[in-house]
Amino acid sequence: MNTGRSCFLLAAAVAAGSFAFGQNIISAKSGLIHYLDGRVLLDEQVLDTKLTTKFPDMKESSVLRTGEGRAEVLLTPGVFVRVGENSSLKMLDNRLASTRIELLNGSALVEVAELLSGNAIHLIYNDSTVSMPKKGLYRFDSDPAGLHVYDGEALVATGDQKIAVKEGRMLAFDGSSTVAKFDKEAGDPLHRWSSRRASYLSLASVSAAHSLHTLGTMWTSGGWRYNPYFGMFTYIPGNGFYRSPFGYSFWSPGAVYQAFYVPRLAYAGGGGGGGGGSRPYFDSNLGYTVNSRGGMASGGGYSGGSVSSAPAASAPAAASPRGGGGSVGRGSSGGGR
Questions:
Q1: CA distance to 79, 124, 233, 275, per residue, from 25 (Å)
Q2: One domain, residues 91 and 198
Q3: How far apart are CA 152 and CA 28, in angstroms?
Q4: In a domain? residue 62
Q5: 189-215 and 3-21 are packed helices; what angle lies between their axes, rounded to 10 degrees?
Q6: In a domain, 337, yes or no
Q7: CA distance 122 to 98
Q8: Cis before 228 (ω within 30)
Q9: What is the pLDDT along the chain (337 residues), one digit of tens a residue?
């Protein structure tokens, strides 16, 4: 292949990538069915698990039902709902300003990365209405019926009662108003699958945010962004970065340079221990692996006066603090159930 043709193909690939990254969800509705794993039906029609460029959405009164399968649905920008096996979810109102979903049976996990101004999320179960006005992670079950708040704070309205349920607390949907503690570390298949989904979305967020930063695209408010290399949408905050309750980071274009340009600390070899060098470790403040102060651990001295930055070779892998690893792939939950 000659040099001219190579340059042409490279330019075409860059242009195509830029166009693909320019695709967003421009919608005033909640309910995009983003990912399927196993048998999932929408209004009793079996859905194809290979969602690539066309994603079905839940209309008002639509019912999403799972058999031996799970589903991830995008609600208002920054809010995900993940539905467990043998569960049913009904869309009552798909407007961003007043999104209302009803758990008919089974289990659902709602992750609120960010709730933009003017948007609202409510989940209904029987005669209880739960609003989630803060970032957090909320679990809903029908058997036994109840709400578990892993992170954030939920407001529950049942008849004349209004109850606040904070992090680490649960409320049974049995007519009582008793709020009790529960073990946040106890997981189950839905929780572990949701953690893996969060890790994949985090990776896609780093890549998509970096594309926005490189292209100089204006991004002033959080929103969904399609990443063609991962074949999925992800969430991009308006500024800074969002740390998922599962331990993964979602980056804004203005902050993503922290993931691609990792500061490297200079070390001066010290006596008594065999020199410096550095060791990789996971920095929970950054959300990815960096080099540690290995020289100090091995007896070397640390020279704090010299700090340099260099671009990373590729986007960092998301950390897996709760064992939710696995490679990114379509139609597979990755790892164990």
A1: 14, 26, 9, 53
A2: no
A3: 25
A4: yes
A5: 120
A6: no
A7: 8
A8: no
A9: 444 433 333 233 333 333 344 455 445 799 999 999 999 999 999 998 777 667 899 999 999 999 999 999 999 999 999 999 999 999 999 999 999 999 999 999 999 988 898 999 999 999 999 999 989 999 999 999 999 999 999 999 988 889 999 999 999 998 888 899 999 888 899 999 999 999 999 999 988 998 888 888 888 888 999 998 888 999 999 888 888 888 888 888 888 877 766 555 544 444 444 444 445 555 555 554 555 443 333 333 323 333 233 333 334 444 444 333 333 333 333 334 5
Output the furthest CA–CA distance in the chain (Å, rounded). Answer: 76
Q: Provide the domain limits for residue 236.
A: 191-311
Q: Which residues pair with 236 in a beta bridge?
A: 223
pTM of the model: 0.72
298, 274 Cβ separation under 8 angstroms = yes
Residue 139: how many CB atoms within 10 A of its CB?
21
**CA 167-35-151 angle, 5° bins:** 5
Cα–Cα distances (Å) from 253 to 167, 223, 256, 257, 296, in that order, read: 30, 12, 5, 8, 34
- 127 and 84 share one domain: yes
CA distance 42 to 25: 20
